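Appendix B. Extra example for self-study. Work through it before the problem class; the solution is given directly after the inputs so you can check yourself.
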Amino acid sequence: MDQLLQTLNAILNSAISPQTAALAIAAIGLNIHFGYTGLLNLGQAGFMLIGAYGFAISIIGGLPIILAIIIALVAALIFALILGIPTLKLRGDYLAIVTLSAAEIVRMIGRSSILTDITGGSNGLTGNQYRSPFTSLSFFGDGHITVGPWSYDATGSNGWWFIATAWFVVGVLCLFVWAIMRSPWGRVLRGIREDEDAVRSLGKNVYSYKMQALILGGVIGAVAGIVYILPASLQADSMGRSMTYFIFTALLLGGAATVFGPVLGAIVFFAIRLFVQGIAGQFIPSSIMNGQQTEQFAWIIIGITLMLVVIFRPQGILGNKKELSFDVK
Amino acid sequence: MIMLVMVAIVTMVTLGSSSARADTTPGPVGTAATTCASDATTGCLQGTIKLPNGDPAVGIKLEIKGGDLDTTIATGDDGKWSQAITVAGPYTITVDTSSIPDGAVLDSATKNPATVTGALNKNVGYVFKVVGGTTAADGTTTQTPGTDTGTGITFDRFLQQFASGIRLGLLLALAAVGLSLIFGTTGLSNFAHGEQVTLGGLLAYLFANVLGLNLILAAVISVVICAATGYFQDALIWKPLRRRGLGTTQLMIVTIGLSIALQYSYQYFLGASTVRIDRANPVTVDLGPITLSAQSLISMGIAVIVIALVGWVLVKTRVGRATRAVSDNPALAAASGIDVDRIIRLVWTSATALAGLSGVLLGLVLNGVNWQTGLQLLLLMFAAITLGGLGTAFGALAGAMIIGLVVELTNLVLPGDFKYATALLILILVLLVRPQGIFGRRERIG
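Solution. Structure tokens for the complete assembly:
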């Protein structure tokens, strides 16, 4: 019973944690790519990493926080341009392979030993090297705040200040996506997803629209990177291919091409993982499955969940099957 | 005698050398696998030390001071060292240079003692690089020229890297041909193909090392089992899904899910450590300035023969012609009496067998396999088949050779971290100029 409560507690904590919010933001960005425009971006973690490095290195270099955020977003914009120019005119698989490769290149350069002075190499940068300008913006004061089942420090890392800002960003982005996707611009994007040639025959510049979507989603990915590293540390390897796959899993779980799908998906993603791990830890004797193995078991379940969701419910929890034809252009 | 000693790069024990592992953190790929597991109250300092020839350096003594610790540990049989800490803060790690075997010294660029900042709930890795060299009686060390990080290009080094490039290219081609055939016949980018390579290596380890079978027998059994996985994968997963009419994007995401599940299954059963298929020390062969292990040469020979065989089957036999017909236009092929499902089943079976063989040979050549051997290769495979032209088997071969050479030759001018990055960069550049690849046709791309 104790352990069951512990698991429940862990799930509750993860449901509001800033890192869940970061995954949700990254999934919102990916939703613009994949859900609305049909672009198969397999390098969302690369955008996160670009944003994270842009932000952290600027702050460590002594720039004010606003400028650091702008630099991070501009870096993601340039990255999107570099990726988009060679691939957006080609078939979808090329974009997939190039984005996947480019994200890996960013990660490998970030963790390479030559750049240890700037990026921290494979050890990365610790949070307190870049966190203080953000912490000092807090108006939550010191002390400890308890809300319902959650009890955290007001301002310390992983505290309410981080949680509130992260979810505020999620809220703003949801509103933003809702607004632009019902605008004429958003309808063109959906049109491209459904039938690129039809949109082209209406005189729209498909290439340019795709590029705008790639940039927009990528910049949101950079925001996710910043949110992700603020309460933690910046490590190139924590934003590798697996991260992209997790973002995809979260997006598809929640429902692509929906406003709240990515957010719900991110929460459910962590809940499934912690639930499986907790249950396996409690009910399966450690002679059959030890602590390390319960964690791996949880990831195996995540992989299988992704397969089953895509096969049996491609629209996810919230999606509308009719809306989503779900095929690469 | 030409001393061409490969620079031993001390790798971090795990891919994600350190990652916060709090409950709320989406972990990257599994990180802790050593004797030391970090949690909320402990952290780990760890690393691997390798000798210049790539073998693990056993019994190197390290003195660790800092926090509440003052201890001396030694590297294990696998060259790994790790120390659990309970206090965050700076730690001083000193390598006892007298415990380094003769013929090797600590690289002059490596700090000794080194200061590492330990943190709780984190694995912190540190690199001590050992290179070829001698220690004089007075304790001064002389590094063998050309054995440092080495950005100087000599012709001999070029030849050595070229040979390694050919080797990597051939083994890559074995795996990539299958990936390309699957893409050609079904339109599916199989992201779980890397795991098939890993499977081959791990099975060979299981049969040759754990069960003690003869190496060749173990390799044959592994390849046969891998082929069976392909056959049943198609029968149980892919064919029913094709029948359901799933789009290629959906199918591709299914393979991503499969790949995640397989990776963690390997970790579940075998842990995250690298296992060696063949326990014996490799015998090396000198060919002029080139030094390769005997197993490398045999592996390259096997790869050449098998690739030639695949090529012959594709060009000369009825089955091969039918396969190419299905690649070209499945509907037309079906209309002209080819049993498309049977061909696809055959392609899956042989593609996974080839990937398995590639895994066995890679495990022998690279001195071990772990759960992510194939994962690291997957991107290179994609780069190879995109370079060669998606869906063309011979393009995959050509692309793999280019990628193999690029990866290994990059080592001449850039540090090892960049070798995969260069290959992928070339892929992106090629797409700018000639998106259809070397052998691809224009109409396939747009």
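Self-check: The longest strand of chain B covers residues 89-95. If your reasoning did not lead you there, revisit section 3.
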